[in-house]
């Protein structure tokens, strides 16, 4: 009876009504809060003097996610897709949950800073868990999968354009700015910033020839934006229409 | 009789012809001018020696908006939606009008500079009043409301992307630029500038790994632009077609 | 007989075949060359030692455009729209031609530099003359006229957004960067650069609050691009389809 | 018999199944690797101490592409379009193959650095070879050819806009920044960066008038992006639909 209630509360496939169950909504909110905690605790100005508060929050989130993990394992055997807790425990979603839990414990054991970094990055995988809950990432991934070939074409074209402009700028500027344009890989940093129209301006061509090449790069960069924008815009409007039907 | 004339002149719902009444057009023009006044008076180069002129303009706008406010209250009882001036006075639009009027008076009483700031910000709410007059904001808000779910999805996806790239850059650059990338919230400033392709260039990655992450961020930023562009473009073209019918 | 030949060669409405007559194609090419001349002669590196060449080119273009002007006047009386040379001479297109001719003569008379500037700017009006020849500007202006209301709405919305973000940044940054954010008009320079995603980076917020406002500005700037992009994209695709029919 | 097998393996027109033959897929992969080699070998940090490895890779790619070139010549006579190896050898694709081969040999003979540069640039033409293999560039070129006129119109309009804004900034800023805005060609570097919304920020207007002109340029730059984006988006969605049928 408890198992059935848990299954309906936690397993989206077992939920009767539309959208997420109330329990899952709360879990999504908890995950978002734990991500915010992970973001804020990296900023000394926001943690100074509040260390006990952060420790308590860590403990709270760990307890909450541990209970959720065990409850999901317990409830999984009612879902015909898994049958037993062990098959569910080996799904990608469940393994992500486990890694997130481990990331809570291990920092307390005094591991190396480099390990901390990796585990902290793993904590962000929590974001991937959100994908299970909403239609958002389903729709996005559906749109991307449906047009994967067209997007692949535009990525190849963009990469070719990037290589061409990097080489052109390398040839034009390497004698004047060896530090910034002394090799094609170095010129690529400039090339990416220009083709995506980000344009940091930390590295810019200074020779007339380099500027002419750069102008052509910037103008063709419009096409580099127009191509995937057109493809994605079409794909998303299609995907949105399919969902509405 | 005067009340009916005022109602037809001031209340868009009581106006017979298409568009705005001549009176309301003049009021819109006055509001725009008062906003320009508020903008210009913050620039010393534009106010130096012209203080009496600005004071006179303030007085003029205050008088005009006070008369308009009282006239609207008087005319409101003819509109079945309000019935009495008091019910109209408590609508959001009317309260905004009142705040704007108060913002005119209180600076003269010698309040603190911080209060001035807040009132000055309130003065900009006049912009919101313009929304009552034209189809512009109606259409925009209609398009946004209609696609609120799709836009929400893209905002969540963009926020996730921002978190991911901030964390990646924080991990790659924190030891080399602790001031700029020493925490995830600090790295977010760079991340927003890159994902929106603004690219100020005040903060840029300097390590090869950071630049590779940044290149991926800039390229995925194209999708970050393409997604809401596609959704909004579709929503606005739909909204424009609905209005035309 | 000569008048008729000139009319068919110069007046697009009197031309039999599709597109422009051979004579008008040559004149378009001449106009483009004269614009390039005007552009290049401002750069000392490109004029040094070539002054006689530039003077000769000036003389050549002046003679060519004078002959063209007189021939157009002579041929105009055959076009029922004008009837007489004098009515044609007072059309906007013909007056532009005359101003361009005058801009050639007056620099030789030793006028002031400031006048030179104005005349040089007038020389660029030649570009407007190109509009008579091709479908290009017709289509563009048709698309813009057809959606003038929608574009007006988006311009008003964008201007309001710019005012709001300028005021927000002015309030957040004025005490820290009085030179750059000391007044709303000054903050507008930053605001335009951010909302259009140009992002020069010469002026950037430095306070946490200012950066939060700036992040919102940059993100809403995506909508500022998406709105006119969607409207214009639709307008141009419509205009292109109408032309093809 | 060998000739027929080679023809089916190498000549896309003689290949039976859909897509590329397994042999051609391998060749595409080899070409991509050789491009990466050419890119990496320009960066001293990536070549230091690995010179023998790079030399061996050069030799390997040269041998592979030489064998491929000869095999293609041998197999070409079975294709009715060429008939004989000599006719195939004079096609554009085959000449590009030959230039790429020559670019491998000549650096070893001790030519001048400037020649190296040209040959290195020629090596990038390998990218053009990829166009033979995939639908990608076919579709892109088809979309561009189909809307060549519309794109031409937008390029002309963009160029006119660039000239106008360059001249305006030149007039406004030349006395204050003679190095950056002292001539129209110099102002064009700024103009391209602004109209494409790249916005490096290495050169920015400093006078109020220049900033007002720049603001108008940046805002019209949105249209400069919207126009080709709309045209290309429509062209690609059409091209994609045609391919799918």
Structure explained in plain terms:
4 copies of one chain form a homotetramer. By secondary structure, chain A is mainly α. The first copy, chain A, has 2 domains: 2-133, Four Helix Bundle (Hemerythrin (Met), subunit A); 145-244, Helix Hairpins (Orthogonal Bundle), CATH 1.10.287. Helices cover 76% and strands 0% of the residues of chain A. The first copy, chain A, is built from 13 helices and no strands. In chain A, helix 2 packs antiparallel against helix 4 and helix 10 (148-173) packs across helix 12 (184-195). Chain A starts with a helix and ends with a helix. The relative contact order of chain A is 0.08. Chain B binds chain D through residues 197-201, and chain D through 197-201. Chains A, B, C, D: It comes from Roseovarius azorensis. Chains A, B, C, D: InterPro entries: Ion_trans_dom, VG_K_chnl, Volt_channel_dom_sf. Chains A, B, C, D: The chain crosses the membrane at residues 23-40, 52-74, 86-109, 151-172, 212-236. Chains A, B, C, D: It is a multi-pass membrane protein. Chains A, B, C, D: Its main location: membrane.
């Amino acid at each position: 009876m408890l198992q059935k209630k848990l299954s309906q509360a936690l397993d989206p496939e077992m939920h009767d009504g539309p959208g997420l169950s109330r329990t899952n909504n709360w879990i999504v909110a908890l995950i978002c809060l734990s991500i915010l905690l992970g973001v804020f605790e990296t900023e000394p100005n926001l943690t100074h003097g509040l260390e006990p508060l952060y420790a308590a929050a860590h403990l709270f989130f760990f307890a909450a996610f541990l209970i959720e993990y065990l409850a999901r394992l317990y409830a999984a055997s009612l879902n015909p897709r898994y049958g037993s807790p062990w098959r569910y425990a080996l799904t990608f979603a469940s393994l992500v949950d486990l890694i997130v839990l481990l990331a809570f414990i291990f920092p307390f054991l005094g591991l190396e800073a480099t390990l901390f970094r990796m585990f902290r990055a793993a904590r962000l995988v929590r974001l991937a868990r959100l994908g299970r809950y909403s239609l958002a990432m389903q729709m996005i991934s559906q749109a991307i999968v449906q047009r994967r070939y067209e997007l692949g074409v535009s990525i190849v074209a963009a990469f070719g354009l990037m290589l061409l402009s990097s080489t052109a700028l390398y040839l034009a500027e390497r004698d004047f700015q060896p530090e910034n344009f002394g090799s094609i890989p170095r010129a690529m940093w400039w090339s990416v910033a220009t083709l995506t129209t980000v344009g940091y301006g930390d590295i810019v061509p200074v020779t007339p020839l380099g500027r002419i090449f750069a102008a052509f790069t910037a103008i063709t960069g419009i096409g580099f934006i127009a191509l995937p924008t057109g493809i994605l815009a079409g794909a998303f409007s299609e995907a949105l229409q399919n969902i509405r039907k």
